[in-house]
Design goal:
two-stranded antiparallel sheet, 13 helices, 4 strands, 58% helix, transmembrane
Length: 331
């Protein structure tokens, strides 16, 4: 066997391994795309991975975003619109003050804890050919992206809320207007909370988390695959082994075609016009978290704490922020 053939066989094997590298089809393309620790740096332990300088930068960014969230939530007072005769006569502001149908803690569970749990379970269920450390890393990086999505949503929502100062539909019940003092006599904190109707924070927060989860679910279940292109992270586990001939320097791979492996063959063998058939269930599963967010938004109308335009704008705001984060971290 010649020395040149040995070198050629080595490079072919290395190229094949790189092509099958799970990091190339990792669901978090924004991190370490050029080399996952477990593949290119086998000595990199999980603790060292968690303290990688690129992740440290993300930790710092999240910390800054968290600080800005606290500032926008507690340091700034809402813009105080004057209470004149038109406001006092507005029937849309005379609804009774009610208790939250979906409390804040339930909103946190629905928008953060539930997507994170679903992601972790799905990663563990589909990643049969990768290590537990890889599953943890992908879930952890999803958690970072989800945290950034929710923090950006809260910051943007608070800034708009405090700047606009729109009255809630139950403002007059909160205010308890006195014709003697010509001022509100209700609890100042409750009255102040009645001035931040636009946009709906519950709606934006719920749709931010659910939209990110829905997009991720659609990607993991191969919705956006093409017959000759990327097949989704779900099918990474179906990679086939490469057999390299050192004598000829040729690599043989009977099943692997792109990132989809044998599944890509099945797509290419479909009759014309049916390459995307049979995947309606993916759309159905992807819409489940959106339904949960829609219910949360509707409850804000049921208890007369927001106007319809507040809920619609909040939902669009959260969904748009989730789409931006998704496009940079998962696309």
């Amino acid at each position: 066997m010649s020395h040149s053939h040995q070198q050629l066989g080595y490079h072919s094997q290395a190229s094949a391994s790189a092509a099958l590298d799970p990091s190339d089809t990792d669901s978090m393309a924004g991190y370490e795309r050029e080399g996952e620790g477990e593949t290119h740096r086998p000595s990199l332990t999980l603790s060292r991975w968690l303290l990688h300088k690129r992740l440290l930068s993300d930790y710092a960014t999240l910390a800054v975003a968290g600080a800005i969230t606290l500032v926008t939530n507690f340091a700034f007072k809402p813009f105080e619109r004057p209470i004149d005769a038109a406001v006092l006569a507005d029937v849309d502001l005379r609804h009774p003050l009610k208790q939250n149908i979906v409390p804040t803690w339930a909103l946190g569970l629905t928008s953060f804890a539930a997507p994170l749990l679903i992601n972790a379970v799905a990663q563990a269920a589909i990643a049969q050919s990768v290590s537990a450390a890889t599953v943890f890393k992908r879930t952890f990086r999803f958690a970072l992206s989800l945290s950034l999505t929710l923090l950006l949503t809260v910051i943007t929502t608070n800034m708009i809320k405090k700047s606009v100062g729109r009255f809630r539909p139950d403002f007059l019940d909160r205010c308890k207007w006195s014709i003697v003092t010509m001022a509100c006599t209700g609890d100042p904190a409750v009255v102040r909370e009645g001035r931040v109707s636009f946009p709906s924070g519950h709606s934006s927060f719920a749709f931010a988390g659910s939209t990110l989860l829905a997009l991720w679910t659609a990607r993991m279940l191969n919705l956006y695959s093409r017959p000759n292109g990327f097949q989704g992270a779900l099918f990474v586990r179906r990679r086939t082994a490469q057999r390299v001939s050192l004598e000829s320097g040729q690599s043989e791979n009977r099943n692997h075609r792109g990132d989809g492996g044998a599944f890509e063959d099945s797509f290419s063998k479909q009759p014309r016009g049916l390459s995307r058939a049979g995947r309606f269930y993916v759309l159905l599963l992807s819409f489940v978290p959106m339904w949960a967010a829609a219910y949360i938004a509707i409850t804000r109308l049921q208890q007369f704490v927001h106007h319809p335009t507040d809920v619609i704008s909040g939902a669009l705001l959260g969904a748009c922020i989730a789409l931006v984060v998704y496009s940079t971290q998962f696309w």
